[in-house]
Design brief:
InterPro entries: bZIP (IPR004827), bZIP_sf (IPR046347)
Largest sheet: none
Structural class: mainly alpha
Pfam family, one: bZIP_1
Number of strands: 0
Number of helices: 1
Subcellular location: Nucleus
Protein name: Cyclic AMP-dependent transcription factor ATF-4-like
Shape: rod-shaped
Keywords: DNA-binding, Nucleus, Transcription, Transcription regulation
Strand content: under 5%
């Protein structure tokens, strides 16, 4: 009787741990997808920042506010 009860408890424990692993794996997959989306967004924002800086420099050069060799960080 005790042996059978112990066997059932061990089976429940293995199932529980397997479910926990599956859940953690799915969380990992979802977080990796989120990270990829965030990295893509960062890249697009960096491109936009560069474009806007260039537009600002050109505008300031055209208005004579900025000299040709001046750089904006």
């Amino acid at each position: 009787m005790k042996k059978e009860s112990n066997k059932e408890a061990a089976t429940r424990y293995r199932i529980k741990k397997s479910n926990e692993r599956d859940s953690l794996f799915q969380t990992k997959v979802n977080l990796e997808k989120d990270n990829d989306k965030i990295r893509q967004r960062i890249e697009l924002i960096q491109i936009e920042i560069s474009y806007l800086k260039n537009m600002l420099v050109q505008t300031l050069l055209n208005k004579g506010v900025l000299n040709e060799g001046t750089q904006i960080s």
